[in-house]
Design a protein that fits this description.
With 209 residues, the protein is mainly beta. It has one domain (8-18, 42-205). It has two helices and twelve strands; from the N terminus they run H-E-E-H-E-E-E-E-E-E-E-E-E-E. Strands 1-3-4-5-6-9-10-12 form an eight-stranded antiparallel beta barrel. The chain is globular, with a radius of gyration of 17 Å.
Length: 209
């Protein structure tokens, strides 16, 4: 897995590499069952038809993409947790590969620095692809590199669904470094003014170990 360094200049360079290298998918590791991991392992689906997460951008190029009056942006419509190799859990839904989590009590937070990256101090991040309008009725590929802060957490809920299924919440904020591939050498990026992605959604568990 390629290292994604977190200085503004290095982040811009990393996003620019997307133009030629594309997205890199992560993979989950295996582990033993029968522990606190099993409270999280499985496939979880968002209970709502809309998301509580929003993208907030001050950069002029992206504030038009995510206006303050309608800036909902769902990335995690589902979550899939598997036993991790170097962390307690790996989130392998493919929505934004790859976040790795460690469990503490009834919550799990993203491991920082990410033990799977090449450099020892690399902050955990994941890459998501979407599309933006090109102003002529077409669309352009765009990318967001999410770097969660310490608030980014999945929390098991004590109350069940009406049918007795397990529930959890994903809550927190992340820095979102953006790139629009407009055909130019470096694309359009947020540079020194990244967007902020944050909110809360509740999920129910469909499968379990």
């Amino acid at each position: 897995m390629k290292s994604l360094t977190r200085s503004r200049a290095a982040t811009t360079a990393a996003l620019s590499l997307v133009l030629s290298l594309g997205m890199t998918a992560g993979c989950g590791g295996g582990g033993d069952g029968g522990g606190p991991w099993d409270n999280f392992v499985g496939i979880w689906f968002n209970e709502a038809t809309t998301t509580g997460f929003t993208m907030t951008c001050t950069d002029a190029n992206f504030s038009q993409v995510f206006p303050s009056t309608n800036n909902q942006f769902e990335i995690f419509g589902s979550l899939q947790f598997e036993h991790g190799e170097l962390t307690d859990l790996a989130e392998t839904s493919g929505n934004c590969n790859l976040h790795n989590y460690n469990i503490k009590g009834n919550s799990a937070t993203v491991a920082n620095p990410d033990p799977y990256l090449e450099a020892p101090n690399d902050e955990a991040g994941c890459l998501v692809q979407f599309a933006v309008g090109d102003g002529a009725g077409g669309s352009l590929p765009a990318f967001a590199l999410l770097t969660p802060d310490a608030s980014w957490t999945v929390k098991l809920l004590s109350d069940k669904t009406a049918g007795g299924g397990d529930r959890l919440q994903l809550v927190g904020t992340a820095t979102a470094d953006m790139l629009i591939d407009d055909g130019s050498a470096n694309g359009i990026t947020t540079g020194a003014t990244p967007c902020t992605y944050g909110g809360m959604d509740t999920f129910f568990r469909l499968t379990r170990p």
